[in-house]
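Obj.: predict assembly geometry.
Materials: sequence records (below).
Method: joint structure prediction, all chains together.
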Amino acid sequence: MSAFTSPARRLRGACAAGVRVVRKGWAIAAARYAIVLAIALLAYAVVLLLAGKNPLQAYSDTFSFTLGSWYGFSEVVVRMIPLLLTAIAVALPSKLGLINVGGEGQLYMGAWLATWGAITFTGLPAAVFIPLLIVLGFVGGGVWAAVAGFFRARGLVNETITTLLMNYVSPLIVGFFVYGTWRSREVGASAFPQSAAFPEAARLPRFFDTRIHLGLVLALILLLLFWFVLEKTAWGLKMRAIGGNPEAARRLGVRLGLYIIVAMFVAGGIAGLAGMAEVSALHGRLRAGFSPGYGFTGFLISWLAGGSPLGILTMSFVLAVVFSAGSLLQITQGVPFAAVNVLMALILFVVLMKPRLLGRLS
Amino acid sequence: MRVMSLATRMALAAVAASVFLGGFAVAAEPALTIGLLLPGPKNDAGYNQSFYDAALEVGRNIPGIRLIVAEYVTDAEAESVMETMIRQGARLILPCGFPLQYPAVAVAARHPNVRFMHPGGWEVRPNFSNFFATTQLHFYIMGVAAGLMTETNKIGFVAGMPLGFTLGNVNGFHLGARSVNPDVTTHLLFTFSWGDTTKEAAAAQALLDQGCDVITMHLDSPIAVIQTVEAAGAYTIGFMSLDARRYAPDGWITGLGLTWGDYFTQSAQAVIDGTWRTGFIRRGLAEGFLEIAPFGGRVPAEVREAVLAVAEDFKAGLIDPFKGPIRDQNGVIRIAEGEIWGNEKMGDFDWLIEGITGSPK
Amino acid sequence: MNWAFFGGLLSGTIMYGVPLLYTTLGEVIGQRAGMVNLGLEGILLIGASVGFAVSIETGNPWLGVGAAALAGALFNLVYAFLVATRRANQLASGLTVMFFGMGISAMVGRAYVGGGIAGLARYQVPGVAALPWVTRTMFNYDLLVYLAVPVAVLVWWVLYRTRWGLSLRAVGENPSAAFAAGRRISALKYQAALACGFLAGIAGAHLSVALARTWTEGMTGGRGFVAVALVIFSKWHPLRAIVGALLFGGAVTLQLQLQAMGAGVSPFLLNMIPYLLTLGVLLVWSGARRFAAPGALGRVYSGEE
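Observations (raw structure tokens):
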């Protein structure tokens, strides 16, 4: 670039170059994900053939039912919401080198505390209720995760083990309340162990006449915020520094313990929002065992995405389609629902085999 | 942005593909497509199988029935499963799982031309009916069989979850046993799950260890309990699918079978004819919703006669098990003298009758 | 309180602790070699489905147990391949195995849903019938129950008294040093994974062939994850694993026996106890080196081979 070009022109040139780089990065990333998917789909086609099914028909069914109709697509998006949130809950602390496998438990605690709010303050207007539920969901999951962060910060127990163990406890807490003091006493509904119905004002709004709800907005904002904080702020820089070399960071005077506890609190809070949103927007009541393992899937998504926000968005979408395929192929093709787990495993297997495919070294 | 545009493009391609493929798929238009949703496997010899067998019976009774089955449906998946079935042409949906009621009501509101029949719930809409058998009343007959067969005067009940309907079954069972054997006590265990077979076996074993010698159950699949009881040489009373008998060649007494075949057939025909009506339906032995399973070889003739006599009384409407005075475990009168706990309240039990050991929570 | 309560509690605790013990022993071996395997749930399911299918097809439950053990061992090679050869992330590799197991077991077991078998023969513990508080049905165990503690001792002996065990633990403790000492790290990891899968396969078969005597999808009900917690509880030691397995087995049985007595203790609170105890154990002994986790547990060994 010559010295005579005007600053504006230089700026424009730089921008264009930047866009080209971003576009190229996008294209490469997209191609990589596509290759991984293609290999997994090919392998799964063999499995389907072995089971006596027609893989082409199966894939075209999946395609047309999940993406070929507005309803099918909206349901994929609904499935994505808890996956996005629980994946962020794993990706955030991973930047500090922390492994949060407790998304499932944190999700339950968020739903638990939000339910307490919903059935206690029944008279509130929606404008107050919804923010309250968001805060309660966040605090419920956050405190639960912060306990693990605290133990780690004090050098007592590694957070992987604690969060894993705490996953077992929170569904039991929910069960205890749902079968016990919170059990609905409405006529008819009392036959089933579940909380009283949320007041209408405590239901997250839904959009476009589908089940897509406010949780999507929350998830996308948080994803954007996650990217922004990580890339554009001093906190993000410090977090990555800690993740890269905690000892050096400590010597430079970073308060490691505080970072760990805060990161775990925020992560748990985000997972808690997933639980709050599921219960408030979709079920309208708290029930035992309402999550089919969103927290674990979120862990895998974050890992597959290498903690990158765009990767999280992509993989949440892909896995939401995969799981939609599970119930779908049973109906159209008679493939057992659980067989979809094999496809899930194959995707993971391909990435684990060839981590470079997603541009990562193990 | 790019993801979205890609998705849109793929979606358009898919619509084109499905229209194209759909053109070939339509061979002969079925008279009626039925969508059956089951929370477990269709051949569990229990709850799920009772509905699956009935749906197959519809196919045998009415020509041109197409059946779409989805097993292991969770409430998180249920709505999209039903929507898919409707897209596949289903005009009668049977969401046969207790927690599937809410998703089914939601789907029903979007599809007024599709009929829904839900077992065991309480919601009713113009296109959404509710049906079940009055098992709580008829467990009394099973209780009579248990009360006559037990030698230890301890009979056991393994149940999945403390639902009102389940507590009603236990109460009915105990009342029947007590009517023929005043010394009998009923011992109730919950596994707090519908499908943890290992825990079900453990529960049956715990009852056997406590000295129970006749055991019945309210679980999705009775197989684990029956086989544990059979191996210990004790007696079993079955519930739900009549097929359960084959797991207890030696210790089978009898069972209460859920037989929906005729009802499903009539309902399917009504949908075809356009005469289907909604309702809140609770029926029993007399109306064919229930059947007494054949007796096992070790059941003496006088017990068979006694049980069948009670069953006849039921059909004739001569017996009302839940007629006061009935006391709960704490001795408090829950159904007053002369009062009757009506059919509409069968899901509302949150207490157990005196003489039952176990917790209603 | 009555004697039947204690008899039933003890009898059931042993019975339902055993499949957990086999699984935990397998995971102890794996983790001693530095591998955390979250895929145990999948291996248990493979063991349970294959064990049950072979039992039905051959009519011989012991063939079922054998086939389950082999299937578990072979299946865990997937994990070994990812972790030892591809040096992949262990948690994700474990979950991969779990998903494979959930899917494949459902497909294998599909034809056998609703099946029933007589199961493994049971023999009452000799002499207990003479005790006044023992009923006819208590302490009736299949051979796998009787073998459980001897197997635990065997695992301890192999890990702590043989050269192979020493090498294995060296790999889990400090792979670089082990490599410098001439040990074949990858081979040892494969062997540990085989042993882990073998024992977890037996445990799965014990659930379907001996206890429930039937197959249902997902019948392991999270016991694979419980075993991971149990390894932590037992501080990576095969003999302490016996205590841990009995504790977890006891929690389930206690819950049933208390119900049978009519005591209104919430099963949810009872079920929490083992996990809270495990957390407590971790906190109390977090500083003690004698109880520490293997040094290189969960790490990817990126050294030379």
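Conclusions so far: Chain B has two domains: 31-133+260-283, 135-257+288-357.
To do: check interface contacts against the pulldown list.
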